[in-house]
Amino acid sequence: MLTDTHAHLNDKAFDADRAEVLKNARALGVERIVEIACAPADWAGGEAMAAANAGMRCAFGIHPEYVKDFDLAVLPRLETFLAKPCAVALGEVGLDYWWEAARREAQLELLAAQLPLCAKFGRPAVFHARNGKEQGQDAYAELLSVLKGWNYSPKARFRGVLHCFSGGWKDAAAALDMGLALGVNGTFTYKKNDDLRLTVKKAGIANIVLETDCPYLPPQSARGQRNDPAFIPEIAAMVAGHLGLGNTQTADATTANAFALFGEF
Ligand SMILES: [Zn+2]
């Protein structure tokens, strides 16, 4: 059984064929999906989708790209969603210095406002970190430094996941030390991504979860197209080949990691 730990299926890119996409993914063995509802406008839609689909759960939070519209008044509503039975995580939350480098302070405030909700609701976090275009805009280093003061302790092995991991081995090692899993997606299959493949090899199968981040970031074979959870088997097969493991072993291990992170569902 495979798990897509990071999907945005509520995106309008799926309006025409959402049910078909879900059915197709399930037929290919992708039986568990975590929908990331990371803008206030997405929360209710995420909850409704999870209610209608067995094997789907939700993360609720505010992505750093929405920092410009952020108003503290929305937090009580976020709490009502984190209290729902379908909620398995806070997220995605974090720091994006690629698109929003100019709003660094505001992003740090947005993150600080949401992080205490993990301890309050007993839920892990899905983190987003993207470094900026200029030297010194190091989202990974700053996020990891913020997390040194993060007081959430999970029952299981992981406190959160660094989704769409794109940092170096130094960032990965610091994240693993902090009890974070690494989210591996289609970028693992990109021709130029030898650094990421090396990092994943060093981290080992015990520390990674699979994700698509659909509709974005399809694997190499489908670049330029819409991504969806049906690409998880292809990503899993590349990870398996790279780590010298079998496909079933890789599917089972990464799903077990997803359950260690989010709880079994
Ligand atoms: Zn995402």
Please provide a written account of the structure:
- This protein has 265 residues and is α/β, with parallel strands linked by helices.
- The protein has one domain (2-262): TIM Barrel (Alpha-Beta Barrel), CATH 3.20.20.140.
- The protein has ten helices and eight strands.
- The chain has helices at residues 18-27, 43-52, 75-82, 104-114, 116-121, 139-147, 169-177, 194-203, 232-243, 247-262; strands at residues 2-7, 30-37, 56-60, 87-96, 125-130, 160-162, 180-184, 208-210.
- Strands 1-2-3-4-5-6-7-8 form an eight-stranded parallel β-sheet.
- Helix 7 runs parallel beside helix 8 and helix 9 (232-243) packs across helix 10 (247-262).
- The radius of gyration is 17 Å and the shape is globular.
- Residues 6, 8, 36, 92, 213 line the site of zinc ion.
- Zinc ion binds next to loops.
Q: CATH superfamily assignment?
A: Metal-dependent hydrolases
The bound ligands are:
zinc ion
Across the major sheet, the strand order is 1-2-3-4-5-6-7-8
CATH architecture: Alpha-Beta Barrel
Low-confidence regions: none
Short descriptors:
265 residues, binds zinc ion, eight-stranded parallel sheet, TIM Barrel
